[in-house]
Amino acid sequence: MEKKDLKVLFVSEFQPINWAMGKVIGDLFQIGEACGIDEAEDRIFARNYTHVVVMGEFRSDSSDDKGRKVYDLLKLRLPIWKKSAKLLRSGYSNIDDPDYIRLPFLIQDFSKFLSFH
Amino acid sequence: MIKKIIVVEDKLEELEKACDLVMAKGFMPLACSTNEDAVDTIKKYQDKGLVGILTDLHFPVREGGSPEGASGAHIVLKSLEADIPVVICSDIDHHYASWATDLIGAIEKATGKKVVGFVQDSKNWERALSLLFNEKEK
Fold first, then answer.
1. Complex-level ipTM
2. Which of B8, B21, B44, B62 to mutate to test the interface with A (most CBs of A within 10 A)?
3. Is domain A3-112 given the CATH code 3.40.50.2300 in the classification?
């Protein structure tokens, strides 16, 4: 998929990160948006994103990780809403998983990563 | 604001069936498969377009658990406390459902509010949804 075809939503509970990410990805893709956890589901239900990236800790001991909770619910809800968006995780943790984007890497070259998904 | 209906059911096929009906009526379904998810979702959306709740009776308390007791009764309590219309939809045999009916009755008495309906004997989501809509039209 070409960069110009991607419609990307970045979701996190941290407003400054959303502001920065909105700036970074805003110009990269056809749609590049960032929003908080509370408004994410309304946006995803109403629009057709190609990628939804949720920021969280995603560690096994982080039971109060809001990002992880949203990610888990979206895993259930996206197919029910008939949305084909690829759901990815993101954060600062050192997690080695093809669906996980470490945040510094994301800022450096977000579009390269998404081209593999 | 998008109008939303929470659907609580741990069997994916049934959950999809119920949510498809909700979407066909123009509402956003908020699917939940555990008690924990449902309680969090009620809190999150009770002032953000949530118009009703459809709930099964038996489902796990949290992810990875097995269906236990009557988790749906807890969802009923949370719904009535938040003043959100709720319909229970379960394939529980009505001959053996008196304990559940008694439990829901006790919750209604404690909160001073009533559930919109209790669909028994079959997972008839269409009927459950129509009960919810009838209540909304009152």
1. 0.88
2. B44
3. yes
